[in-house]
Automatic annotation (TrEMBL):
Protein name: SoxH protein-like protein
Keyword Signal: yes
Pfam families given in the database record: Lactamase_B
Domain Metallo-beta-lactamase: 178-287
Alphabetized UniProt keyword annotations: Signal
Signal peptide boundaries: 1-29
Length: 385
């Protein structure tokens, strides 16, 4: 497939050349592997009046693009964290417990692959094509099953930005909730590319917006119902982002919480997050698995951030945190504490050893304060985390 796209792109270049269209920008023919280097050569070729020389320069550019392709995105497997097999046939890479940086290759959330009866289900695309490629390379040392289905948890880049890699390697079933997919297609992608370009342009060099290829749903979609490949994709509702796609796999008794579930690091209320919606969505998620899991005590829970866990621990670290935060902020409001003085009144010592506490404790408290006092959440322009 890759090769086909690549050939098509280059035959476009050659056709343009043969048709004597050298005065128009030849580089319009897009290869997913075009970079500044080959764009420069194509532009140079387009300025030349000498078609033989132009052709040799274009050959050089196309060889360069072929090499980029053969070397697999950025050329070698990134030293992302090792794959942990957290249950039989469940391959998990844990993202950094902070925001995306060059040092963690933007990988700050989890990617998981699950062997089902006839293929592999992957939850989250990876935070960029280079991370997706690296995860795939590592995964192939553990399993030879084909990857057939891929679910995208929400609006964020760490859920979406690896999608074009999976399309390139032939995965066609990428699922996302409707509003999240619309957001990503029209605004999220461009914004994410801009942000990652600032710290790691190589990580996204081959990236494309493929959201028009996502299979969309609103409330729930069951993949291959009644088979050993059954996966329930459920929009449990907003909280962290305005909607959130969780996944429940009956045959494996696994719940993917997406960003309704954080363990280890502190959860974050971003622009547009709502703690009260988060609590309600979390309750819907617990209701869902309580109804659908045949063995709730042994349910394996893969949170959006932090290591694999169980429902009790997840509830303690996410749901109970927001309940405690709500109580602390409500007490401060009852005591007449002003918004600008909140920092002195909302310390939560039980939580301060958790990663991201110092970055988020006040921001979260302010978000809860605003939601309680005004009923509003802040500008829904999404920040990424
Ligand atoms: Zn996240």
């Amino acid at each position: 497939m890759l090769r086909k796209i690549y050939r098509k792109a280059n035959s476009g270049v050659i056709f343009a050349l043969a048709a004597g269209l050298l005065t128009t920008p030849i580089a319009q023919a897009q290869s997913p592997y075009e970079d500044e280097w080959s764009r420069g050569f194509k532009h140079y070729a387009s300025q030349l009046g000498d078609s033989a020389l132009a052709q040799s320069i274009l050959n050089y550019a196309s060889q360069h693009e072929r090499l980029l392709q053969q070397h697999g995105y950025i050329g070698r497997v990134l030293p992302i964290p090792a794959i942990e097999q957290v249950a039989p046939g469940v391959f998990f890479v844990k993202g950094a417990l902070m925001w995306g940086t060059l040092e963690n290759f933007g990988l700050n959330n989890n990617i998981t692959a699950v062997e089902l009866e006839s293929g592999i289900f992957v939850y989250n695309t990876g935070s960029n094509p280079a991370v997706a490629y690296s995860f795939h390379q590592k995964l192939q040392r553990h399993t030879s099953m084909p990857i057939k289905w891929l679910a995208i948890e929400n609006y964020q880049s760490h859920a979406n930005l690896g999608a074009s890699y999976w399309m390139d390697v032939g995965v066609r079933n990428l699922y996302s909730e409707q509003a999240a997919a619309d957001f990503w297609q029209t605004r999220g992608f461009d914004r994410a590319v801009q942000r990652v370009s600032e710290y790691g342009p190589l990580l996204i060099q081959p990236v494309r917006n493929v959201a028009d290829r996502y299979t969309r749903f609103e409330d729930r979609l069951i993949i291959n119902e009644g088979s050993g490949d059954e996966v329930h994709l459920v929009n449990f509702g907003g909280g962290h982002t305005p909607t959130m796609t969780g996944a429940f796999i009956p045959s494996k008794n696994i719940l993917f919480t997406g960003d309704l579930g954080f363990v280890e690091r502190l959860p974050g209320l971003l622009h547009g997050s709502s703690y009260s919606e988060w609590l309600a969505s979390f309750e819907r998620m617990v209701d869902y698995v309580t109804t659908h899991s045949s063995d709730l005590d042994n349910l394996l829970v893969i949170p959006g951030h932090g290591g694999a866990t169980n429902l009790t621990e997840l509830t303690r670290q996410t749901y109970d945190y927001f309940k405690d935060l709500e109580a602390v902020v409500k007490q401060a409001i009852a005591n007449g504490v002003a918004r600008q003085d909140l920092a002195q009144h909302v310390a939560m010592p039980d939580y301060q050893d958790r990663p991201m506490y110092s970055q988020l404790f006040l921001r979260n408290a302010l978000s809860v304060f605003d939601e309680i006092t005004t009923g509003q959440v802040s500008d829904p322009t999404l920040a990424d985390e």
